[in-house]
Structure formats: structure tokens, C-alpha cells
Amino acid sequence: MLKYTAKRLVDLIPTLFLVAIIVFAITRMIPGDPASTMLGPQASVEDVNRLREQMGLDEPKLQQFFQYMKELLHFDLGYSMAYRRPVAELIMERFPNTIILTIFSLIVSLLVGVTAGILSAVKKGSIWDYFFTVLSLVGVSIPVFWLGIMLVLLFSVNLGWLPSTGIGNMSNGLVDYLKHLILPGVTLATIPMATFSRITRSSMLEVLEQNYIKTAKAKGLKGTIIVLKHALKNAMTPILTVMGMQISSMLGGAVLTETIYSWPGMGRLIVDAINKRDFVVVQGTVLFLAVLFVLVNLVVDLLYTVVNPKVNLGKAAK
Questions:
Q1: Rounded to the nearest 10 degrees, how much is the dihedral formed by the CA atoms of 67, 70, 72, 76?
Q2: Can you give the pTM of this predicted structure?
Q3: What are the angstrom distances between the C-alpha of 19 and each of 71, 82, 177, 291?
Q4: How distant is the alpha carbon of residue 272 from its chain centre?
Q5: What is the rounded distance in angstroms from the CA atom of residue 287 to the CA atom of residue 289?
Q6: Is residue 46 within 8 Å of residue 35, measured between CB atoms?
Q7: Phi, psi (5° rounding) for residue 82?
Q8: What is the DSSP letter of 229?
Q9: Beta strands in 223-279 (DSSP E)
Q10: Residue 309 to residues 225, 304, 313: CA-CA distances in angstroms?
Q11: Which whole-number Å values give the CA distances from 264 to 49, 96, 160, 173, 194, in the listed order?
């Protein structure tokens, strides 16, 4: 396992290098002058040129890229001229909010999605099976931005049950914080929830047809024990695979969700940085998210050995 982990961490280097190249190229293709955008339309030409020089935008693109890579080699994500703060400091300030939102959404999507998938598999062909199947198809297909707006209209504007924007204050109690978390959390969890439901149903149906399950039924074991103790454990490998991808997609999908609900996380930071043409912040946050994606998938791969000891990571490391 140590050899496999070391190999995956080494593979992270070319991945991040490629991401750095792509992000650098894309940010330079965004229309508009960052210096002019930051200073506003009333700024003088001298002030704009001075800021461009401070940001290094007056240098050739190739030289800018080499300077950017040199900073990365020193673990320096740069300095934001728009926020007047180091990028690493901005990320560490917003990252906990994104993680809280992602973990909450993951818990909701797993609880609801896996439960729905199990019920669909156990009651195959019943009205519950058709209900959860249709619901999962709708959940996968529904646009996140539309769902977010509809939830705000229903629960915030019409019913007034939940706040529509911002993050709760723990000084006002846990209930206030959870109220602010519910709408963005459910919005972000919808697609993963539907995906977990479909994968769990498919995996459970395959496991329930195995001979050892039929033997357990013949021995008179209770259906709940058979499903939860024997079937679900052996159906977890595909669910874990999907979970790694869904966590990554939720971190990326937080851009839309955090913008809709004004949630002060990394997604909102990226959107604000793009609007301000703050290339340094965009580069740093995207690169940071790329590292998270790789590490999340690595952790999921290592969890395979816990769920299924037959998985040999040593061979994968060769």
C-alpha cells in the first residue's frame, strides 16, 4: 500500500504541471485588462500602467509563465492585487466553508441515495422501485442553477422557512448555521444523490443474485441482516468508486451553488476573482482544487482494501 501511495503522489507532479499550463493559458484568454478592471473606469493611464507593471502583465506571456512556475516550485501561490492578500491566505479562509458544504451534501446524498437504491433493489418491480428510479433520473437531469433558484423561491420567498443567502453564525446557535446550510447543501447533493441511488440499485441487484445470499435466505436469516450485513458490504466497491468522483464533482459544482446562495467558499472566490480579472487567485484556487481531486481519489482507492481485502494495490503500483 505504501508503494502504491508513493506512486500516486509522484504521478501528481505531471498532473499539476498540466493543470498549471491549462489554467495559465485560459486565464490569459479572458477578455479585458485586469489592471483596468481593478482600478475602475476613472483610473488614469499612468495608474493602470503602474499596476500592470506590478502584476507583471507588461512582460511577455512566456516570461510570465516561467515566473508563475518558479513561484509554484517555492510553494507560493502568488499575491492578489484585488484583495491585497496572499492567495494561500484567501484559500485557507474560504476552504473550510466549502469543505463543510461538501461534507454535508455528501452525507445527505449517501443517506438518501443509498437508502433509495437498497429499497429499489429489494423491492424490484414494485411501485417503490419505479418511483425511486424515476426520481433518480430526474435528479441526474435537473440543472443545479434552476433547482437552486426554485428552492429559494419555495422555501425562502414563499414559505419563509429558510434563509436564501449567506452563511450562518455559530454565535447565534447551531440551528441558525444549519438553516443557512440546508438549501445549498440539498442543491449540491441532488445529482450525487440520484447517482448513488442508481449505482446502489444496480450493484445490490447483482449481489442479491449470488449463491451465498440464497444460502443465507435458506438458513432463515432475517432479510434486514442479509441486506445490510452481507449484501451491502459486497456492493460497496462500485459505490466507493462513484463516491470519489462525486466528491470531486461537488467541489467543482460548488462554484454554481455558492454563487446562487452567496456562500463564502472557494467557488464564490473563483467567480469573484474572474469578475475582477484576478488571474493569480483563479490560478491558485484551481490548482488547489486539482490537488484535492487527486488526493480524494487516492483515499477512495485505499478504502477499497478496507471494504474488499481481495483488492491488491501492490500490483497496481507496478
A1: -80
A2: 0.79
A3: 15, 23, 35, 10
A4: 18
A5: 5
A6: no
A7: -75, -40
A8: I
A9: none
A10: 21, 7, 10
A11: 32, 10, 22, 19, 26
Q: What is the predicted pLDDT for the residue at 307? A: 61
The amino acid at 22? I
Model confidence pLDDT, tens digit, residues 86-132: 888 898 988 888 888 889 999 999 999 988 988 888 888 888 888 98
**Pick from 133, 244, 243: nearest CA to 198:** 133
In the block, residue with C-alpha cell 494561500: 88
Residue with cell 491566505: 89
DSSP string, 135-157: HHHHHHHS-HHHHHHHHIIIIII
3-state SS assignment for residue 60: coil
β-strand partners of 86: 79
State the Cα–Cα distance between residues 285 and 281, nearest whole angstrom.
6
The answer, yes or no, to whether residue 193 has pLDDT greater than 80, is: yes
CA distance 89 to 80: 10
Per-residue b/e over 103-138, b at no fewer than 16 CB within 10 Å? ebbbebbbebbbebbbbbbbeeeeeebeebbebbee
pLDDT tens digits for 25-49?
Answer: 887 777 777 777 777 777 777 877 8
Burial of 289 (0-12, 13-18, 19+ CB in 10 A): buried
